[in-house]
Write a structure and sequence with these properties.
The chain is mainly α and 401 residues long. The chain has 2 domains: 3-182 and 228-400, Up-down Bundle (Na+/H+ antiporter like fold), CATH 1.20.1530; 190-223, no CATH class. Helices cover 73% and strands 0% of the residues. It has helices at 3-28, 37-63, 66-71, 74-97, 104-112, 118-128, 138-171, 183-188, 197-205, 208-222, 231-244, 246-252, 260-270, 273-289, 296-323, 331-339, 360-367, 371-400. Helix 2 packs parallel to helix 11 (231-244), helix 2 (37-63) packs antiparallel against helix 14 and helix 15 (296-323) packs parallel to helix 18 (371-400).
C-alpha cells in the first residue's frame, strides 16, 4: 500500500471511534440523560461481568494454540515495558511540572497505563478489512489480531491491578476520607512493609523457614486477589486451557465442533463490548468538559510522554527485539506490539467497588485524589488520539510491511 492509502486506512478506525464516542457524549447530556451516572454504572457492570469476559474468552480461545502462544511469549514482556517506560516518563513530567502531591500518582499512571482494550479492539478489525493491506487475508487477520488484542488486554489488566494500583496507593497520599463502599478493598491492600516489634521478637525464636511462611500467609491474607482475578482474567485463563488442550479445543472450537454453539454465543456477547465501552468512554469524557484546575504544563507533559516519547521508545524496542530474534517476522504481530506504545491512557469505566477495570480514573475515585483532573487529562488525550492513532499506525504499517 502507498503511504496515502496507509494514512486513509489508519484514519478509518479513528473516525469510527470518534463517531461512537460523540454519541456517548450526547447520551450523557443532562437534557438527554440516557447515560447518566446510574446508567453508566449498570452498563459498566454488564461490560465488566458479561461483555469483556465473553470477548476475551472467545477471541483468545479461537486463536491461541501451543505454537501461537510460544510465538507470543514476548507480548507480556512488551506490555510490561510500556508500563515501566511510561512510569519513567511520568516521573520526569512530575519533576518538571511540579504538580500538587496528590496528583503525582495520577500523572504517572496516565503515562504508564495504556488503553489496551477499546482502541485496539476497534483498530485491528478495521485494518484487517482493508484490501491490499500489509497483513494476512481479512478472516485470518481478524482471528489472529483479536487473539493478540485479547492477550494484550488481559496482560494489561493484571499489570494495572498490581503495579498501577499500588503505585496510585503509594503516591496518592492526600489525607482523604475513604468511601464506605471501598473500605474493605482499601484496607485489604494495607500490607505492612516492616514487621512489628512483637513479630521481630518471634522471628528470632523461629527458624528462617517459619519466618518466610508466616510472611507469605500474612501478605496473602491482606492482598485482594479478587482485584487481580477479575472476570476477564478468569475468562482468559479458561480460554487458554481450552485452546491449549487439543480434545477440549476440538470440542468447542471449529466449524464441526459439537459445542460450537457455546463459542458462537460467547462471540455474539463479546461483540457488544466494543460499542458499549466506547459509548461509556464518551459519556465519561463529558466530565472533562466541565472540569478545570489541572495545570496546562502537566497536561502537555502527559501528551508528549504518551504520544511522542513512548511510541518512539516502542519503535526502538520492538525493532531491536526483532533483530535479536525475540519477535517473529509476522507483520500483524509486530504491528500490535508497536500499537501498545501509541494508545491513549487507560480509561476507567466504573467504580472500584464493583472492580470495573479500565483503570486510572476509578483508582482516583478510590483514593480520592484528582477525579476531576483525571477527566481533564482523559479529555485531552482522547481528543488528540485522533491524530496519534492516525499518524503512528500509518508509520507502523509502513515499518512492518
Amino acid at each position: 500500500m502507498k503511504l496515502l492509502e496507509l494514512f486513509i486506512a489508519s484514519s478509518k478506525p479513528v473516525v469510527e471511534t470518534l463517531l461512537i464516542t460523540s454519541v456517548g457524549v450526547y447520551l450523557a447530556l443532562d437534557s438527554v440523560n440516557l447515560l447518566g451516572h446510574d446508567a453508566r454504572k449498570h452498563l459498566n457492570n454488564i461490560v465488566f461481568y458479561v461483555f469483556s469476559p465473553s470477548l476475551i474468552g472467545s477471541r483468545l480461545a479461537d486463536s491461541v494454540t501451543y505454537e501461537s502462544l510460544v510465538n507470543m511469549w514476548f507480548m507480556p514482556v512488551n506490555v510490561l515495558l510500556t508500563f515501566m517506560i511510561g512510569s519513567l516518563l511520568g516521573w520526569i513530567v512530575v519533576v518538571i511540572t511540579k504538580p500538587p502531591s496528590q496528583l503525582r500518582g495520577l500523572i504517572i499512571s496516565c503515562c504508564a497505563a495504556g488503553n489496551l482494550g477499546t482502541m485496539p479492539l476497534i483498530i485491528i478489525p478495521a485494518f484487517c478489512k482493508e484490501k491490499g493491506g500489509p497483513f494476512e487475508d481479512p478472516e485470518s487477520c481478524e482471528i489472529n489480531g483479536m487473539g493478540y488484542v485479547a492477550l494484550s488486554m488481559t496482560t494489561g489488566a493484571i499489570y494495572s491491578w498490581t503495579y498501577i494500583y499500588n503505585l496510585m496507593r503509594v503516591l496518592s497520599n492526600s489525607p482523604v476520607e475513604t468511601p464506605h463502599s471501598v473500605e474493605s478493598n482499601y484496607d485489604s491492600c494495607k500490607v505492612p512493609l516492616v514487621s512489628s516489634k512483637e513479630e521481630e521478637e518471634d522471628n528470632h525464636k523461629d527458624g528462617r523457614w517459619e519466618k518466610v511462611k508466616r510472611r507469605v500467609v500474612s501478605i496473602s491474607e491482606k492482598v485482594n486477589l479478587g482485584s487481580i482475578f477479575a472476570p476477564a482474567t478468569i475468562a482468559a485463563i479458561i480460554a487458554l486451557v481450552i485452546g491449549l488442550i487439543t480434545p477440549l479445543r476440538n470440542l468447542v472450537i471449529g466449524t464441526v465442533a459439537p459445542l460450537r454453539v457455546v463459542q458462537d454465543s460467547l462471540t455474539l456477547l463479546g461483540d457488544g463490548a466494543i460499542p458499549a465501552m466506547t459509548l461509556i468512554l464518551g459519556a465519561n469524557l463529558l466530565k472533562g468538559l466541565r472540569s478545570s484546575g489541572m495545570k496546562n504544563s502537566s497536561i502537555i507533559g502527559v501528551l508528549v510522554a504518551r504520544y511522542i516519547l513512548l511510541p518512539i521508545s516502542g519503535v526502538l524496542l520492538v525493532r531491536a527485539a526483532y533483530e535479536l530474534g525475540l519477535v517473529t517476522s509476522e507483520p500483524l504481530y509486530q504491528f500490535v506490539l508497536l500499537l501498545q506504545y501509541a494508545v491513549p491512557p487507560a480509561m476507567n469505566l466504573g467504580s472500584f467497588a464493583t472492580l470495573i477495570t479500565y483503570f486510572v480514573c476509578t483508582m482516583t475515585q478510590l483514593f480520592g485524589a484528582g477525579e476531576s483532573e483525571c477527566s481533564v487529562i482523559m479529555l485531552w488525550t482522547c481528543s488528540l488520539a485522533s491524530i496519534s492513532l492516525t499518524v503512528w499506525p500509518t508509520f507502523f504499517m509502513w515499518l512492518v510491511a
